[in-house]
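Researcher: Sequence recovery benchmark, item below. Answer with residues only.
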């Protein structure tokens, strides 16, 4: 269940009356890795496996689906509120960081809580090596496709969305969640599980463009990251370093290009 109906009071035009609204469901999800607690996030139920797969990928715990021995809900916990991850290769990707993180839980709603050292915050993703052109009109069409799929947001007004597109202008994955990081991890996880991470070219997110979102885009190897809101200074700095074209304030007929303008042409 992702939506609840709630009776409330509404004040409008100098009148107070009874109203009923849709609420996006917010529930806790525990992430266990090799039977040890690793992270807690508040999320919109649904797509949990993609969410956790994407989280593990962007955290550097896995490099592909092949690094996972198994990933599933814990059947002994009611309500599908714990996901169990088992790694195939104990030395894969980021074992040292994994052992340190087992000493405490992080709360990933802000993507930083629980991280104790600067080297845990900044990833070592190399700059994106690929380069392809994209037209302004194509990006505006992506926005239209993106917004027509925001069904839970249209009902509740309280969710974030993320979408991934390929070079063929095709939608690869779309997801909604109460958390912006979760929504992005869900679409990334979908591609990881399908073995299609190399097809990802451009992402649109409904939220502001923070450096954590740029960092996730860098791990995936995206060339273009687009947001409906503004970027932060660290996001612009990181996008510049990672060779990512960063676009903010995407509107019906406008956008602001902050880094690597050379990929975008007018048509």
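Model:
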């Amino acid at each position: 269940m992702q939506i609840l109906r709630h009776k409330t009071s509404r004040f409008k035009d100098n009148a107070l009356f009874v109203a009923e609204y849709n609420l996006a469901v917010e529930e806790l999800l525990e992430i266990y890795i090799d039977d040890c607690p690793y992270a807690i996030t508040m999320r919109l139920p649904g797509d949990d496996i993609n969410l956790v797969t994407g989280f593990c990928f962007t955290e550097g715990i896995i490099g592909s689906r092949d690094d996972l021995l198994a990933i599933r809900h814990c059947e002994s916990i009611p309500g599908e509120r714990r996901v169990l991850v088992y790694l195939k290769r104990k030395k894969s990707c980021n074992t040292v960081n994994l052992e340190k993180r087992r000493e405490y839980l992080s709360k990933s709603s802000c993507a930083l809580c629980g991280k104790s050292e600067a080297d845990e915050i900044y990833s070592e993703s190399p700059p994106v090596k690929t380069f392809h052109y994209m037209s302004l009109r194509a990006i505006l069409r992506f926005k239209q496709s993106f917004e027509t799929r925001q069904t839970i947001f249209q009902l509740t007004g309280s969710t974030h969305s993320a979408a991934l597109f390929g070079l063929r202008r095709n939608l690869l994955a779309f997801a909604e969640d109460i958390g912006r990081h979760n929504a992005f991890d869900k679409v990334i996880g979908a591609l990881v599980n399908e073995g299609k991470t190399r097809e990802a070219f451009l992402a649109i997110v409904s939220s502001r463009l923070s450096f954590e979102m740029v960092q996730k885009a860098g791990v995936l190897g995206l060339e273009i990251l687009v947001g409906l809101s503004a970027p932060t200074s660290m996001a612009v700095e990181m996008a510049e370093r990672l060779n990512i074209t960063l676009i903010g304030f995407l509107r019906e007929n406008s956008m602001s290009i902050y880094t690597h303008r050379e990929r975008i042409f007018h048509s």
